[in-house]
Amino acid sequence: MRNKARITALVLACAMLFSGCNNSPADTSSADNSSNVSITQSSTENSESSDEGSSKEESSSEAEKPESSEAETSSSESEAESSDAEASAPESTKAPETEKPAPDSDFSASWTLSNTWQDGGNYCGGYEVVVNNNSGKQVESWTVTVTVPDGFEIISGWNAQYKVNGSTLTVTNESYNGSVANGGTVSFGFNYSSPSEFTPKDVKFNGSSTPIVDAPDNNGNNNTQTTTTTKPVETVPPAPADPDGSTPVSVHGQLSVKGSQLVDKNGNAYQLKGMSTHGIGWFPAFVNEGAFRTLRDDWNTNVVRLAMYTGASEGYTGSAMLQHEALVRKGINICIALDMYVIVDWHVLADQSPSVRKKDAIRFFDEISKEYADCPNIIYEICNEPNGYSQWDNDIKPYAEEVIPVIRKNDPDSVIIVGTPTWSQDIDKAMNNPLPFDNVMYALHFYAATHTDWLRQRAENCANNGLPIFVSEFGCCDASGNGGNNFQQTKEWLSLLDRLGISYCNWNLANKNESSSAFKESTHPNGNWTESEMNEGAIWIRKWFRGEIQ
Questions:
Q1: Of 473, 514, 521, 536, which residue is the catalytic one?
Q2: Is 473 a catalytic residue?
Q3: Which one of 245, 271, 336, 462 has the lowest number of neighbouring Cβ atoms within 10 Å?
Q4: In what order do the strands lie in the sheet with 185-194?
Q5: Helices in 19-135 by DSSP H: which ranges?
């Protein structure tokens, strides 16, 4: 198993790519072409297997977790292996040498070598690329070509579509970032595997030779680069039609909370049902239009949850911060174009208490809620699974009382989900001391093979006492995210939630080798999946979403 070396911080220009609800994708009518990306099991999709993402909480009948969790142990092992990967990276791998652009160059680019490692005798690494538009006019679409060694493969990529043909890598824009204003920038990134060393050369942007500027040193550092970002003005396209002739947000609009119930713009009870991603840092390829469209049209879902880990070695607050922000914005923009609801999840797990990264959370939610203030699509989940020492009265509620006003000043109408103690099982603690805000719901998580009658009774009691509950994560298997599935218990859970009108998201949209993962390891991420590509849990839950299980 290979682990990447730590990804260095991206240049600030990445943030310009993504716009708010009024500046959303100009055209997503064509399916995401990320099927051109070569996905292999030696990619970052495997690195999470040794991280805390490989485990969910394990609870006894008293809903408690062992003090030394598998998640924390795996995270430590992952960081150790990551250090080994750094040590084994080939010293001769170099970032591109800086060239001084000609005065009349229409475009220039910086290539940041973010990581290097070796796998199976191949040279592997990652690049973050920022292209500057100096052409004097706005670009409406773009294509980058670069010469690569024979046998070169893309392991994973983000913010663009990738295709390798012989010795040429071709990178094209996504539907949401094709427009680049004069003086603006656009960025993308990828991880690669190559039988020989790779340094980008013969780079062209829309057919124009593109000098490499402000290149980093061999460690991926770049202390001299400064780039001014300019966001292009874009518009939201009409929502694509689904088989029923209507799409979720167009019909139901801005959601709110009335009593214990989620309601739509007309005040009618409305239930969200969908899928949660795994950690987007480990499975970035599953954040694509084809996948989400299939979930909407074939699986009959109306919401996607974007899980962004905070404290993991591949977490948001690590060196890959801007990459994670880019993936969140990409996922939001796709859901806007598909007229789906989207949950922006601050995935607290290894941190135990959300207060550990409160400043980061405040900054993140302030930026996202400003950018998407007018979007009825978005629900904010401000802490995933507080656990360990984290208690409702002393840790979680005070955190929420600081974060929620930050969102409210930008987006006063949005629904906000707040995690509860013991891996979001102790919803009764919130019922006894609720938050003093409107449009707030409280997270309940369950894994059907572990959490049975006792937790269902708690859920029903809290709902009957007026607590607004949102099951933002559940699995058919046990609480480790693995083990056997218990579909009878899952059916009892979902039947109860349907009767109470409680919304829910299944864990998880990925091709990881574990029971809770929807797809087999060899499955592509781009949607239109067959049952032969699914794990048994996904086959069952898809049938449930489609009303085929009674």
A1: 473
A2: yes
A3: 245
A4: 107-119, 122-133, 185-194, 153-158
A5: 44-47, 70-88
